């Protein structure tokens, strides 16, 4: 059986990583039987999760997992979409991954209160005398990555403007449809649920969550998708 390597439910979400949630929803959409395994991080080929083991074939990265499913199993995640909508759906996914994701990372790792409530738990296995040093080292690396990527260079006011525009744009794309590109879920919905639900998690204080909370169709979308695809995931609040 295909194995998906995950972090597991955390922070009231099906998984701590929106990329893992995306990959798992792709498997669900494709109707493929799979099992999850939380012990694979140290063996991750790219040093990140998710990755899958499909009968001995290792595929890392959520987007490459999608391409693998399409190639090996012939599943079309965007069946029924016009070429124009296929292109729009793909670009919409990439906007979420490049915009929403980095603001979530910044909020979780750079805000001291959020870090204590969330990512600090990832270091529990490290002995206490060196744990603060390890935490400080990783947080410095993340701040450096955010600066290089660009998100870390914005002022709070600039970020607020961008997040408001981004959340409203997502709400405008969704409109009153049940899914982002029509009456049936497509590949973009796997990404959208992963990243919008991560940003909307009440577990953390973040500006993007506040913007999403003002958009009823986005909050209803997250609730509906969770009920439809991850009703048995548990809340992960203590993870």
Automatic annotation (TrEMBL):
Quote the Pfam families the UniProt record gives: GST_C_6, GST_N_4
What PROSITE patterns does the entry give?
GST_NTER
Give a yes or no for keyword Transferase in this entry.
yes
Recall the GO molecular function terms of this protein's record.
transferase activity
Q: Matching InterPro entries, A to Z?
A: FAX/IsoI-like, Glutathione-S-Trfase_C_sf, Glutathione_S-Trfase, Glutathione_S-Trfase_N, Metaxin_GST, Mito_Protein_Transport_Metaxin, Thioredoxin-like_fold, Thioredoxin-like_sf
What Gene3D superfamilies does this protein map onto? 1.20.1050.10, Glutaredoxin
Q: Which PANTHER family match?
A: FAILED AXON CONNECTIONS-RELATED, METAXIN RELATED
Q: What is this protein called?
A: Glutathione S-transferase
